[in-house]
Design brief:
- The protein is an alpha+beta fold.
- The chain has five domains: 2-193, Galactose-binding domain-like (Jelly Rolls, Sandwich), CATH 2.60.120.260; 203-298, Immunoglobulins (Immunoglobulin-like), CATH 2.60.40; 326-529 and 602-651, TIM Barrel, CATH 3.20.20.80; 655-745, Immunoglobulin-like, CATH 2.60.40; 750-828, Immunoglobulins (Immunoglobulin-like, Sandwich).
- The chain has 14 helices and 46 strands.
- It has a six-stranded antiparallel β-sheet.
- Strand 10 (172-174) and strand 11 (177-179) form a beta hairpin.
- Helix 5 (346-358) packs parallel to helix 6.
- The chain is globular and about 90 Å long.
- The relative contact order is 0.07.
- It comes from Herpetosiphon geysericola.
- Residues 764-803 form the Beta-mannosidase Ig-fold domain.
- It catalyses: Hydrolysis of terminal, non-reducing beta-D-mannose residues in beta-D-mannosides.
Length: 828
């Protein structure tokens, strides 16, 4: 089979409603070059026909794009031999209300951007020039038409008509992103020449309970197979050795073969073992001629979602067990990294996911209001050892369930599950994001009802509890399914079962972030605190007269409802800072880092060993951004790390230290996240704000494996003036640190902590201070990669970090209540 990628010579224009589609296609007026795969926004930007919608208030000036229809056309040449072959047109994704013509003949229409479309075009092709034409009608207007007929449904975020369309829901605007309703061939368009092809390939892997054996069940489907068609199945182990080969004739278009492997090399999340992958190759032959071929990278892993009663408290666990090892799943939620997803490079995907790995995260949740990500994303997760919690694309809405909608959803889910099921990183399919939550808010959810969901006020239960689990059981029976996130059965806010979204901090009652540990769940799949993007990122979209925290443009770049006010409350409760953009950026990022550290630290403490895994995961909202914005992200849209990513990294490290202050009482613990116990020396010290040592306590402790270990508790004589530090040493090396400061931080005096930096070999630095220093933030340009940052320094406790790429560049420092006129001491 020959595959011709139709990705060049595409043009687009605004549709002229006064003409027929085919007449409009022949017009020479208005056409501009258009990237494919791509969207109309990218074409208009390249042609300088719209301003950058991310700059200033330009978002308002480009909304007309969603209100009109668009035409795309592509001319391509075929030889007489090519034109005479059996052929099919494959459109991997059309966004969203589309009709396709080839050489003036209508092929098909599509209304779901997540469903690939394929049409046989053998009789439509011709030697010489051929023209492909696609009309994209306004998704916004189409949704409004459907809504007018069937009624407005409840939503959080965006135009309510969005729930009637199978289009990425964040295109309609979200509380972290602008409104850009894209249109266009957003996935590849391919012409396939040749009849016989490998139309489907599945290889579910059944792993024995003890992981000692694995069965690779290979099923291949061959379309238009002739009588002499055969399939060659080959399997290579992770070392690259061919370990199985089977040549088999095709019978009724299908081939099935099982390969059993003893003592398989397992695929593990990073930090627990290697990311071993087997390579499966299936080739289709007619005689000696190869007609088609497909390769899959497969990982052998046993996954369980353990929901068992806890020993000493109500409820049950919600923990992931990989290869028989229970794991605390620290991680993050993922949103599309751009509104125009075709601009996201493979390098951007790698940098973002590598940053998660560097912060000791092991799970990424792909949120249900975005897109099913590109293949490269999942390939990277497989390679890097990141578990994937995969939502289906429903978010924050009361979705319909009429027959046409259900059919479209089934086609979507079937296509996406079949595309992605071979990835070892995907460990959970999840029905939706917060749809049970919004239904419960509207008093539309009755967990006890099990009749015809489509006739209730929450009809989408038909999707989440019947349609999607059926699709997953059919096409990916070895992967777990969960109805929604959050979901706790009868009550989505239940702290004792299922997963929970903890928005009691920031949303809801705006609880103090210090109270995060109180708002736990058995698995906290969302929580977060806002902060600004990096100063350079924010400045890139702010006119010079708008560069202050309360400007209209700054507040426009905070999409959370009441976001500027909420952030101001948390900042006022926490810090004092000058009313400059630079001070605002540091203060909001500092506060976010502190808040998220409190959450991870408190919840990971509850990972207390077998029978007591009371909290088994925490996924911060959110890892990344899609434009320059004040949001919950911990990496901004320019890929600049916010301080929170470092504070999270310390809390999720294989061994982490914890201190909890309650008035004058200090509690200390150490989490040993490794699978081996360790003998540790633990030092706890107290300093006053002048740098005087008040006390020192030393302990020897055997840290039990894979759990939190309580160390000690004690009272402080003068809590308002005492900074407590903790160091954990194994074999004489410091492997974890923690500190506890008097709060709120705004009451602490401003002073120069007298910080010193010594440059060592290979871009290593040793940093120390003579007085306690809080929130020390080091900067030296975007090319420098810090092994740690936003440091808390205590006297006589120098810290070593690496700054890859630093060389002799100067280092800029900020710390809590820093004065720009204060200096630091540098040593060679």
């Amino acid at each position: 089979m020959q595959k011709l990628a139709l990705q060049h010579a595409w043009q687009a224009k605004q549709r002229d409603p006064q003409r027929t589609v085919l007449a409009d296609a022949t017009s020479s007026e208005g056409w501009i070059a258009a990237p494919v795969p791509g969207t109309i926004y990218e074409a208009l930007l390249a042609a300088n026909q719209i301003p950058d919608p991310f700059d200033g208030l330009n978002e308002f000036d480009v909304q007309w794009v969603a209100e009109v229809d668009w035409l795309y056309r592509c001319d391509f040449e075929l030889s007489a031999e090519q034109a005479s072959q059996p052929a099919a047109l494959d459109c991997a994704g059309l966004d969203t209300i589309a009709t396709v013509w080839l050489n003036g003949q209508e092929l098909f229409s599509s209304d779901n951007m997540f469903v690939p479309q394929r049409a046989v075009v053998s009789n439509q092709l011709q030697a010489g020039n051929n023209q492909l034409l696609i009309e994209f009608r306004s998704a916004l207007k189409h949704g409004h038409t459907l809504q007018a007929v069937m009624g407005q449904l409840g939503v959080w975020n965006g135009d309510p008509s969005r729930v009637y369309l199978r289009k990425a829901q964040y295109h309609y605007g979200w509380d972290w992103g602008p409104t850009l309703l894209t249109a266009g061939p957003w996935m590849p368009v391919t012409l396939e020449l040749g009849a016989t092809r490998l139309s489907d390939l599945a290889c579910p892997i059944t792993v024995a309970d003890d992981c000692a054996t694995a069965d690779f069940v290979v099923t291949a489907t061959v379309a238009d197979a002739a009588t002499d068609t055969a399939v060659l199945i080959q399997l290579w182990n992770p070392a690259g050795e061919l370990i199985a080969e089977q040549h088999q004739a095709v019978s009724a278009g299908n081939v099935q073969h099982t390969i059993s492997v003893d003592q398989p090399s397992l695929w593990w999340p990073h930090g627990y073992g290697a990311q071993n992958r087997y390579r499966l190759m299936v080739s289709v032959f007619a005689g000696q001629t190869q007609l088609d071929q497909r390769e899959l990278q497969l990982g052998v892993r046993r996954v369980r979602l353990v929901q068992e009663p806890l020993r000493d408290e109500a409820g049950e666990t919600f923990l992931f067990e990989i290869n028989n090892v229970p794991m605390f799943c620290g991680g993050a939620n993922w949103i599309p990294a751009d509104l125009l997803t075709n601009r996201i490079s493979n390098e951007t995907y790698r940098r973002l996911l590598q940053a998660a790995v560097d912060s000791h995260m092991i799970m990424i949740r792909i949120w249900g209001g975005g897109i099913y990500e590109v293949d490269h994303f999942y390939d990277l997760c497989d390679e890097l050892g990141l578990l994937v919690w995969q939502d289906f694309m429903f978010a924050c809405g009361m979705y319909p369930a009429h027959s046409e909608f259900l059919a479209s959803v089934e086609a979507e889910a079937s296509a996406q599950v079949q595309r992605l099921r071979h990835h070892p990183s995907i460990v959970l399919w999840c029905g939706n994001n917060e749809d049970y939550q919004i239904a419960q808010t509207f008093n539309a959810y009755d967990h006890s009802f099990q009749g015809d969901f489509t006739q209730t006020s929450f009809p989408a239960r038909e999707i989440y509890e019947r349609l999607l689990p059926k699709v997953c059981a059919t096409y990916d029976p070895t992967t777990l399914y969960w109805p929604g996130s959050p979901y706790g059965g009868a009550d989505v806010y239940d702290k004792t079962r299922g997963d929970r979204h903890t928005w009691d901090v920031w949303h809801s009652a705006m609880a103090p972030y210090q109270d995060y540990p109180k708002y736990e769940g058995r698995f906290v799949s969302e929580f977060g605190m806002e902060s600004s993007a990096a100063l350079q990122t924010l400045l890139s979209v702010l006119p010079t007269d708008q560069r202050y925290p309360q400007s209209r443009v700054v507040e426009h770049h905070n999409k959370s409802e009441g976001g500027a006010r909420r952030l101001a409350v948390y900042l006022n409760d926490t810090l004092r800072f000058e009313n400059t953009l630079e001070s605002y950026v540091y203060a909001s990022q500092f506060m976010q880092a502190e808040a998220l550290a409190v959450a991870y630290r408190g919840w990971r403490r509850r990972w207390a060993g077998p029978g007591r895994y009371a909290v088994a995961g925490a996924l911060v909202w959110q890892l990344n951004d899609c434009w320059p914005v004040i949001s919950w992200a911990i990496i901004d849209s320019a890929l600049r790390n916010k301080p929170a990513i470092y504070s999270i990294g310390r809390e999720l490290a294989p061994i982490s230290a914890g201190l909890q202050r309650s008035k004058a009482q200090i509690e200390a613990w150490v989490v040993n996240g490794t699978l081996k116990s360790a003998n540790a020396s633990i030092s706890i010290t107290g300093y006053d704000l002048q740098g005087r040592l008040l006390f020192e306590q030393n302990y020897s402790h055997e840290l039990a494996a894979n759990q939190a270990n309580p160390i000690t508790s004690f009272e402080l004589a003068d809590p308002d003036q005492t900074v407590v530090g903790m160091q954990v040493l194994i074999d004489g090396a410091v492997v974890a640190r923690a500190s506890s400061w008097p709060e709120p931080f705004k009451y602490l005096p401003a002073y120069n902590p007298q910080i010193s930096i010594t440059r060592l070999a290979d871009d290593w630095l040793e940093i120390s201070s003579q007085r306690p220093a809080k929130g020390v933030w080091l900067q030296a340009g975007d090319a420098v990669h810090w092994s740690d940052n936003l440091l808390d320094l205590l006297p006589n406790q120098a810290q070593r970090i690496q700054a890859r790429g630093l060389g002799q560049q100067p280092i800029a420092l900020k710390w809590l209540h820093w004065d720009q006129n204060e200096s630091i001491e540098h040593r060679a």
